[in-house]
Specification:
The protein contains 10 helices and 12 strands. The protein is of the alpha/beta class. The protein has one domain: Aldolase class I (TIM Barrel). Helix 3 links the parallel strand 3 and strand 4. Helix 2 runs parallel beside helix 3.
């Protein structure tokens, strides 16, 4: 078992398979973009599998594939198939923007993908283009429909709530759960190298933070009630509207930090183990792996380096990478 200095058992590994993305979401990437890692710096699938195999032998049970946008990487279903076959791995899931999902979900499901999270910050096509800097909302709906057809469940829709941008859609987004067995999750904006102006038409970044307590108060008028936790060991607090088929979740890393329950490590696309999303501390793993040396000490080092919690209240914010480079 992997147990950190504060007694938390680490069972969850989030893996960024690429730093590239087919969207340019305003809270995820700076307006000027970011330099891509060269091809040789990105972990090969076989190397990712080596890391998962070593981690699973020590107690990692859940694996989530992220990016960038993971579906821009060729033949991702092959990686899913390899990870699913590793002894000890019980759950393999995917976080995606959904743009390419319709064309790949059949192969992903056949490979053993269990669950999918889809970023969906607005239900308005024009607003979607603004937030993603050019994305087509209809392609996301096609991806959601295709995932349902393949029996992927649960489908989770993630909305980062931005004051003055999409907070007028909170009730509409929550209402999706009335007719669909989806999990709609509202998420607080995290200050990860996104505090410079986002461009014309957007408020100042520091003005857009919308605490989950306010979202919950808005939805209580619709009869919101607590419910049993959903599938997966994520940080969401789960609720449900009367008669709804789906679940509503609140993820509040700033206003109500859940660090005491953190059970995860992150592996960046260029092979760094990151003990905490909201801290710049990283442990380079890829050079050791490519020299054929034992990586288990580095995995244990990353677990030992996990902080008690983030220090955003002390204005200690990550500055080394933006969200899409981390694989949040």
């Amino acid at each position: 078992m992997l147990i950190d200095p504060f007694g938390r058992t680490i069972t969850y590994l989030r893996i960024s398979v690429t730093d590239r993305c087919n969207l340019r979401c305003v809270y995820c990437m700076p307006p000027e973009g970011v330099p891509w890692q060269p091809h040789e710096a990105i972990m090969r699938y076989e190397e990712i599998v080596q890391v998962v195999r070593a981690a699973a032998a020590e107690g990692i049970r859940e694996v989530r594939l992220t990016g960038g946008e993971p579906l821009v990487r060729k033949d991702l279903h092959d990686l899913v198939r390899m990870i699913v076959a590793i002894p000890g791995v019980e759950d393999v899931s995917l976080t995606t923007n959904g743009i390419l999902l319709a064309g790949q979900v059949e192969r992903l499901a056949a490979a053993g993908l269990h669950r999918v999270n889809i970023s969906l910050d607005t239900l308005d096509a024009e607003q979607f283009r603004r937030i993603t800097r050019g994305g087509e909302l209809e392609k996301v709906w096609q991806g959601i429909a295709a995932a349902e057809t393949q029996g992927i469940s649960p489908i989770k829709l993630n909305m980062v709530v931005l004051r003055g941008v999409n907070d007028d859609e909170i009730e509409r987004m929550a209402s999706l759960t009335l007719e669909h067995a989806w999990q709609v999750r509202f998420i607080e904006l995290m200050p990860i190298k996104n505090q410079a102006p986002w461009g014309p038409g957007f408020p100042a970044p520091e003005e857009m933070f919308f605490p989950m307590g306010e979202v919950r108060m808005r939805l209580e008028a619709m009869g919101l009630q607590p419910t049993a936790p959903g599938i997966g060991s994520g940080p969401a607090e789960d609720f449900q509207l009367p008669g709804a088929k789906g679940i509503i979740g609140f993820i509040n890393p700033l206003s109500k930090a859940f660090c005491q329950r953190c059970n995860r490590l992150r592996l960046t696309a260029d092979g760094h183990l990151r003990p905490c999303l909201l801290s710049d501390g990283e442990i380079p793993l890829l050079p050791v792996l490519r020299r054929g040396e034992d990586i288990l000490p580095l995995i244990r080092q990353a677990v030992a380096a996990k902080p008690l919690g983030h220090e955003l209240d002390q204005q200690h914010v990550p500055v080394g990478r933006c969200m899409m480079q981390i694989g949040g």
